[in-house]
Amino acid sequence: MSVPTLHDLHRPLGSTGLQVSPLGLGTVKLGRDQGVKYPNGFQIPDDDDARRLLKLTRDLGINLIDTAPAYGRSEERLGPLLRGQRHEWVIVSKVGEEFADGQSRHDFSAAHTRLSVERSLQRLETDFIDLVLVHSDGNDLAILNDSEVYTTLAALKAEGKIRGFGFSGKTVDGGLKALEQGDCAMVTYNLNEQHEKAVIDYAAAHGKAILVKKALASGHVCLSPGVDPVRASFELLFEHPGVASAIVGTINPLHLAHNVATVAQVLGRH
């Protein structure tokens, strides 16, 4: 029996010209095990395990990989791990949040935004990043209205250092404003939280991209007995035409394969 994959289910990432798998691999667990909101503890995989995970990810038809400076050593590990494969991946990274000594801090200035992107290019060993999102601290409108982060990202896009930019926020107002000038919004959307649906609606109407974070409620979702929470989660997500891809952070190969098989089933019916 053949293993279900997502190779034939890639779809447009808004109007960026990029084609992405409906599932993306989140890589916080490759670089950071402090201050992460997961129900169970985990061990950061070593390079061999990480390499096997990335090969499996690719073999299952996933081409979207999500990282960030705030994910500890994730970017600097991905650079060497993805050597020789750059053209096979759509890489998403972030700006605005730094994580050190167990604490996050935020900086949305022009200087820091440029420094952060240049550093990500070096760490990831690439000439360009496909998509850079602003890692919001929750003050979405203030970041967009009062800082230079978006104008700096627009300049970096014009220079060819990034192909698209957008916003990973926490409010509907922030998401809507971010999509007016940006290419993509990353929103929380799952069986427990659907308050950002208006952002997805706007994106669908205006040809903008939506990535979903916490699609499985970070492993916390609970349903009635006999209901597969993974399937129910993906059915909710992919019945909305505005959703391009869901970012799921797992280092468990069985979970990854199960997620892919479930998405293949859900999308195969559409």
A few lines on this structure:
The chain is an alpha/beta fold and 270 residues long. It has nine helices and twelve strands. The model has no long low-confidence stretch (mean pLDDT 94).
Characterize the structure shown:
The chain is an alpha/beta fold and 270 residues long. The chain has one domain (7-269): Alpha-Beta Barrel (TIM Barrel). Helices cover 37% and strands 18% of the residues. The chain has nine helices and twelve strands. The chain has helices at residues 47-59, 74-81, 110-123, 140-146, 149-158, 172-181, 197-206, 229-238, 253-269, and strands at residues 11-12, 19-20, 23-26, 64-66, 90-95, 97-100, 103-106, 131-135, 165-168, 184-188, 209-213, 245-248. Helix 2 (74-81) links the parallel strand 4 and strand 5 (90-95). The radius of gyration is 17 Å and the shape is globular. The mean pLDDT is 94.
